[in-house]
Structures are given as structure tokens and as C-alpha cells.
């Protein structure tokens, strides 16, 4: 693959889904292109060798990606808009986005969503620390593979992973052990769970969705007044709490002591 000026990919470019995270889409792109060196793909697309690609791909960088991959102008519009909101909020990506120690993209995920998709992909809102549950399935988002406890991170070369070597080219598989992320038991929310969290924790949890809406709309309503997103930094602790790990620990204790699960089948296993 050459990084020639103006060169573009003509074939084998998967179309992004509306809510898809660019970093996870790049995993699908690399697999579709049969690329064995992700650094080569980053260089060809003009992407940084390291760092959070979801954060990077906005503005001019996103326009160049669309041009190189011949993608529609609407591709990753939601992701780009959210990242613009992150920038304007003055909180920055390190405060709002989940990431690995190396600064790469890390995801929570909803196994129900993955199981329902004929072609699994990862949502951009699964990157955000304040987004802890799926409002569609009323399910607690999962942090890691249920089999090996590895974090879900992208981009990765599918072919070089254990899942890829086993013939599983799906983002519903753990890249480390090939376990089925969409085939796990899903913990549902219940009134008892919310009671365990308490009123303040419940408010922080529910405000995760409101915070995402604020980032996208770039303004929010608080105490009956509208504020520009630049004010979010002053209110973020009040909206979603600064003790996210505190909430996660409470939920984990509740999950481990209550039998309220729903079995989810991975379409890849049908």
C-alpha cells in the first residue's frame, strides 16, 4: 500500500454505520483490505501512529479520511459532532473518553446490541465514561470479555488475533481469547439495582445520556437555564459524578449477588 499523494481506496471499503466509532471501523477496513501492518494503513490514511483515533478524526482529518476511502460526506457525522462537543466543553478527551494506558480507544459494550446486528459494530457512545447502560435493552454495559476479562479496544488487525486465526472476523468476538462478547449473560437493570445505587448514584447514571445529548447539541439546560457547552466543565461533576468507579463497584457487587440475567445468542453461532 502506497501513501502516494491523492491516492484513495477504490474497493473493499466497508460502509460505516450511523453510530459507528471510527476506530472500530478502521479494524473492519484493515480486514477488508487484507492488511497485515496497521502502521501501513495509518500512514496511507494520514493518521497518527499512536493515540486516540476517534478523537483525532474530526474536521480536516475526517474530511481527508472520507476522501481517501471514498466515503459519503455524512460518514461519522455523529462521532465528529460529539468530538467537537468534547473540545468545546474544555473537559478534553482524557476526562470524557475511555482509553487504554497507551491512549488507544477502549469500549464498553451492550451484548444485546451486538447480538441483534447482522454485522456487529461498536458505537461511538460506548467510548464515553458517563455512558454505563443501554437504554434500548435496559442492560448494564459490560467492561470486558466475560471469558478472559480483557478490555475491548480498537483498532486491531483481526487476522493477527486469536479470534482471527480461529476464523472469527467479527467485532462481536474478543480479540484476545476469541470469546463471544454477544453470547454472554446480560445483566438487566431492576428496581432493586437502582435502590442499591441510591438516589444520587441513580441521578449520575441517568444523566449519562443527558450529557451525551449536551455534547452533541453543544448546549444544555440546567436549573431551568440554557448554557453553552463550554459551561459543561463546571457542571460535569454534578451531572455524572466524579466517582464513576464507585458506581461501577456497586453495580459489580449487585451483579455478582443477583440472578437476573438474560441469555443472548450470537448470530454468528446460529
Q: Would you give an account of this structure?
A:
This protein is mainly alpha-helical and 270 residues long. It has one domain (15-270). It has helices spanning 22-33, 38-45, 53-56, 60-69, 77-89, 93-96, 111-116, 162-165, 191-217, 232-240, 244-257, and strands at 105-107, 133-134, 139-140, 152-154, 185-187, 219-222, 225-228, 261-263. Strands 1-4 form a two-stranded antiparallel sheet. Strand 6 and strand 7 form a beta hairpin. The model is unreliable at 260-264 and 266-270 (pLDDT under 50).
State the separation between the terminal residues, measured CA to CA. Answer: 36 Å
Strand neighbour order, sheet with most strands: 1-4
Tell me how many strands there are. 8
Tally the helices: what do you get? 11
Entry summary:
This protein is mainly alpha-helical and 270 residues long.
Q: Topology of this structure?
A:
Elements: H1 22-33, H2 38-45, H3 53-56, H4 60-69, H5 77-89, H6 93-96, E1 105-107, H7 111-116, E2 133-134, E3 139-140, E4 152-154, H8 162-165, E5 185-187, H9 191-217, E6 219-222, E7 225-228, H10 232-240, H11 244-257, E8 261-263
Antiparallel strand pairs: 1-4, 2-3, 5-8, 6-7
Amino acid at each position: 500500500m502506497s501513501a502516494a499523494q491523492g491516492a484513495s481506496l477504490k474497493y473493499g471499503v466497508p460502509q460505516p454505520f450511523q453510530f459507528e466509532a471510527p476506530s472500530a471501523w478502521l479494524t473492519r477496513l484493515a480486514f477488508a483490505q487484507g492488511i497485515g501492518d496497521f502502521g501501513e494503513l495509518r500512514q496511507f490514511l494520514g493518521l497518527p501512529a499512536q493515540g486516540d483515533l476517534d478523537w483525532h478524526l474530526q474536521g480536516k482529518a475526517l474530511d481527508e479520511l472520507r476522501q481517501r476511502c471514498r466515503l459519503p460526506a455524512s460518514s461519522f457525522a455523529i462521532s465528529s459532532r460529539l468530538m467537537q462537543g468534547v473540545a468545546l466543553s474544555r473537559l478534553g478527551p482524557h476526562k470524557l473518553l475511555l482509553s487504554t494506558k497507551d491512549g488507544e480507544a477502549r469500549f464498553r459494550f451492550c451484548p444485546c446490541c451486538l447480538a441483534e446486528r447482522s454485522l456487529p459494530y461498536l458505537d461511538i457512545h460506548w467510548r464515553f465514561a458517563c455512558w454505563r447502560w443501554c437504554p434500548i435493552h435496559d442492560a448494564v454495559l459490560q467492561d470486558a470479555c466475560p471469558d478472559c476479562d480483557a478490555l475491548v479496544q480498537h483498532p486491531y488487525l483481526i487476522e493477527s488475533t486469536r479470534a482471527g486465526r480461529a476464523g472469527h472476523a467479527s467485532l462481536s468476538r474478543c480479540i484476545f481469547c476469541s470469546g463471544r462478547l454477544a453470547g454472554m449473560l446480560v445483566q438487566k437493570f431492576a428496581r432493586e439495582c437502582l435502590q442499591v445505587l441510591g438516589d444520587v448514584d441513580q441521578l449520575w447514571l441517568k444523566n449519562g445520556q443527558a450529557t451525551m445529548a449536551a455534547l452533541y447539541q453543544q448546549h444544555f439546560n440546567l436549573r431551568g437555564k440554557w448554557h453553552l457547552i463550554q459551561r459543561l466543565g463546571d457542571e460535569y461533576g454534578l451531572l455524572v459524578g466524579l466517582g464513576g468507579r464507585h458506581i461501577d463497584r456497586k453495580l459489580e457487587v449487585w451483579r455478582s449477588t443477583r440472578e437476573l440475567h438474560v441469555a443472548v445468542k450470537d448470530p454468528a453461532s446460529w
